[in-house]
User: Fold these one by one.
Assistant:
Number 1:
Amino acid sequence: MTERLTISPDAVERAAERIRRGGLVAFPTETVYGLGARADDSASVRAIFAAKGRPPGNPLIVHVAAVDTARALAAAWPEEAAALAAAFWPGPLTLVVRRREGAGGVVAEATAGGPTVALRVPTHPIALALLRAARVPIAAPSANRSTAISPTTADHVLKGLDGRIDMVLDGGSTALGIESSIVDVTRSPAALLRHGAVPLTAIAALVPTLDLGAAVVAEGQRAAAPGSQERHYAPRARVRLVPAGAVASEVAALRSDGCSAGALERAALASPDYPSVVLPGDPAGYAAGLYAALHRLEDAGCDAIVIAAAPEGDAWAAVRDRLRRASAG
Ligand code: TXA
Ligand code: MG
């Protein structure tokens, strides 16, 4: 049984103790819920991979409470790392740096045996309280089964992982709704590996030479962030991405094929005759509601979900990325 804890100082203390003893605890961050275990212990980290059904070649993000702690886990701290950490930590940015070898550090299982480690200082108060109480770095991928939709509530976590993890700290809905942006500062120039919750323009303002090529993975190509394979964030339902004006006709076509179809849109029809979730027309508002909307349509029993494509432009890059992945395969 997975225990669901409502937030209190005592609950955070118990969750930290469970992590210290090698357990698996899901917790809220400002982006999505993470599935945490101590990053300095091989058995604990292997348990994350087992609970998620995650391929062992896909490394994890290691969360710490302070910039200095992150630095201590890195073998090198380039200028871009210092600038990005100063600007965005605590917050929804992950930095890939060279991993420091040696006792007390991050175990090889967390980095998939590689020479680099992904580090993040989250800003969510519960995540920070948990990290401080645990006094160990916490490896935490999104708290979903591998390839399922990321969780933005404790209910979403339990939908995929009930009975497979020890606890979930229920901190309500996460604010940002999509995962952290990932920047690899071991390369020169530094490279964006994943579009995410920090707007691209904000990162590029600090790192004007930022290489964007690695964040776009063409079909069949190996991703620089191994988890960014095409089919990802995929709901059980079939997802069709269509121009905004074509949603209703696509739903109708799918239904005439016998599918139960729902839709995710940016502007409401007066009264659609299909399950429809309308998300805000601004990129941050849209991102905040996206995964919850996909979960809702999946839970409504839709076996096909039609999504109105997002607008062009840098501000929508992270949303377009997640929609493309949801509809791939
Ligand atoms: O917002 C987030 O980042 C959430 C919360 C829980 O912090 N975490 C998250 O973790 O999204 P996950 O495991 O779902 O995605 C981590 C991504 C994967 O694509 C993985 O391949 C990449 O980070 N990654 C991790 N370590 C890496 C490394 N050393 N080099 C390159 N990519 C790495
Ligand atoms: Mg994930």
Number 2:
Amino acid sequence: MLNNISFYNFMHRQILVLIALFASTATSYIFFGIIYSSYVIEPLWYLFVLALSYWGYRLYKEYSETILTIQEKEVWLNKLRYFIFFYFSSWTIMFVVYVMRDNIELHYLAIFTQLGVAVVATTILVSEKKLAIFILASSMLPITIYLLLIGKFYSYIIAILTIVLAWVLLYGSRNTYGYLQRNQFQAYHDYLTKLGNRRYFVELLEDGIKKQKSDNKFMFLLLIDLDHFKTINDTLGHDIGDKLLSEVAQRMSNLSKVNKGTASRLGGDEFCILSSTYEDKQKCLESAQEFAQELLDIIKQTYIIDEHNLYISASIGVSIIDNPKVTANTLIKEADIAMYEAKSKGRDGVILFNSELSVRVERKLEVERLLRFAIKKGEITLNYQPQVNRDGEIIGCEVLVRWHNEQLGNVGPDEFIPISEQTGFIIELGYYILEESFKTLSEWDKKGIYLNQFSINISMRQMFSKTFIEDSIALCVKYLNPTLSAKLIFEMTETSAAEDVQKLIEIMNKAKLCGIRFSMDDFGTGYSSLSYLRQIPIDELKIDKSFISELDNPKKDANMVTTILNIAKNLGLSVVAEGVETQEQKEFLVKEKCDILQGYNFSKPLSKDKFEEFYLKDKISSL
Ligand code: C2E
Ligand code: MG
Ligand code: MG
């Protein structure tokens, strides 16, 4: 059966069509009664039809005015089937009455109307196969019996023809039914997993929201996204990927059925499950957590597909239908936000949507949107933070990017750099930073501001971009001479460093041909191991400021800093301590022979002009 919401809506509309058709054509029997002087049976029968029409109208109203759950709709549909059966059968009464009369004209009328009923039944009830067959049989059979009872050669032939006609009608209706069913299935289901698709799910959800409104019941929605599914597709091929998806869908669907929920596939490796209803919100929340956890466990069990043992986990976002004003799409979006949070928390987990999450996502989207125009609008500037040697002389600087937007105010790089890395905007931004920094370095050289080193932060994503080396070399050639190029230090953070070490080494070696050196930023907070440090051709370590800030607390991290300094010494690397804020920190680092110091104790990051002033003042005071 075409079992979905639009089917109920379709059947619902059919009621009015039937009532209009039957109540109007039935009046013709009143006229026949008048013409053939029969004044009792016809009006009585007509009243009977009107009574049935009223029953149908009540069913119509019941569907339009109350919000029914899927189960209630099933009950309603059964009542509707009875109504339709009686409604159609009512015509057989008049058929029997008329063929019993002597007037042959009335026989013709009766046969014609009965044929009409059969045709109407098979066309209007296309989607209700069994009912259509039943009504077709009950309307055609009386004609066949009537013809057989005549007992003449010609009537036997016509009786056979009525059976042929019934078969043709049935055949036509079944063809249309099959076509309708396929169409309907395709429109509402996913071809691969046979689960409902996004359209199906949205309708189901809308139904759930209506239920919340009418009965104040609660439901939960799970949005499930498989972790790293793309890797399976890319490495083992789409065939295996498809089989895995079907298997995951099957497990999801089985578990949902046990819990009276419905699973659908929204697309790709994204699935949604809508729960049954709960009286109590707390219970709904608890069940959502339990169900999601159970689902995670089931998804993680090994899959054997074409002799491959596969393993996959999922990230799940949960939202609760607790508010009738919400729309289906908003609910999906909320679950989506929660699901992304689960991904960013390391995947293989469940996160429940909350409003704080939504504020964060809105902000991120706003930053993402406005960032795209930031360079063109001249909102991006560079700051330079001095680096000093153990004697306090300025020997270098670190370039730090700044963004001021009129709507958002100052946005820190800790916020917008990760976003631009995710969106890919970092390539454009990184290029802009390189070019502006190189211009400054060249300009300062002409102004007599001599630095030993000039550090620029480079994101891994930028470094791995196709044109990074080409662009860097071209910019070096355009703005710098070899002596100035040799002052450049590219700072990279270790957070994502482990991805493709060989490629990284290749890129670094190419840059080194132009004299560019490399520094490991925020050392101690990321993933780098000692062997990794040995492999990659770096020149400098920057001890993360979190270690420095702990120095003068309970001397907790002093050992750590000393150890890092020793490692650096053994590996022949120079060391920068960043985030030096106090005199004690400075003294400790000087005592421990840290090469370079950077932090608020010497200067905050400065604009270009301010840096020039700061530098000149420092030079004058050291004369
Ligand atoms: P980072 O490279 O480790 O930069 C050092 C950060 O510490 C800077 O924050 C700097 O202002 C801050 N800092 C310096 N001295 C002190 C101090 O004494 N105390 C404290 N509490 N903080 C200090 P900022 O400018 O907000 O930059 C944050 C991060 O953003 C940077 O960390 C870097 O990872 C990234 N970033 C900044 N500019 C760029 C850039 O041009 N390109 C890329 N890719 N990333 C950048
Ligand atoms: Mg840095
Ligand atoms: Mg740092």
Number 3:
Amino acid sequence: MQSNRRTAIQGAAALTLAVTMPLAFGQKKITLGFSQIGAESEWRTANTESVKSAAKEAGIDLKFADAQQKQENQIKAIRSFIAQKVDVIAFSPVVETGFETVLKEAKAAKIPVILTDRAVSTKDDSLYVTFMGSDFLEEGRKAGRWLVEKMKDNKGEVNIVELQGTVGSAPAIDRKKGFEEVIKADPKFKILRSQTGDFTRAKGKEVMQAFLKSDAKKINVLYAHNDDMAIGAIQAIEEAGLKPAKDIIIISIDAVKGAFEAMMQGKLNVSVECSPLLGPQLMKAVKEVVAGKPVPKRIVTEEGIFPMEVAAKEFPKRKY
Ligand code: GYE
């Protein structure tokens, strides 16, 4: 009885194996070439982690290349993915322009390209299958709207300094544009100075030091295109003997854990959310593209805004 049952179970298992094995062997593992910008910010580190872990989870073979914030390295990486005949190429373009030639090469090699996080500006949208990521214009507007509301009873001039992201990058261009679009409705808002801090803490601090050197007394607001630059700038503000978030109102973007910590210490007023957790939706799209299924041309990440008053309550829920 016992042994009969075992044989029956073994028999059934063998049958299942016989049926499923050829299918499993028939499905080739998907290879994805991913060119990351670098490791310039807390956001980027979380994004890399999300892509790597989602690939593992999805059983996708990931070829990962770090461009160290240089476009030429990204172009090289994409060319090498083409040479290796990967199934899909995904990348986060460091700047908006200058990728057309290499994208045409990928198209000629019939390798689909997915843009993640940042967009390229091209008239030929057949050069990529989809662009997934945040609406940077809207993020800039959210930052602007928060400031307009915060200053609604303020009659005098509001002098703003701006730390821009990487020159020519989609988030730097759009976050500037969206913010300006909102604040220009009231002439009391003035952007005193605006310069790039390349999305890094070190540069954010350095540029803020320069801003403070010439205009310390005039600056009412700092608008930083990401949290890392704001955190660098906070150090510069403290070293100049001023109180961040009090003497100078600080607005930034990303809402990474570092920003929540700064808000809980009362040093940052608000951070607009920009989610780096794009890995799972990227792997989903990769599978769909390989299976020949249609994917939407634009996949927008949903996100909110967090003022310092809610930071302590929200912090335990944050995933990056
Ligand atoms: O805001 C910044 C990072 O492209 C949205 O890049 C991303 C930006 C992010 O370095 O922290």
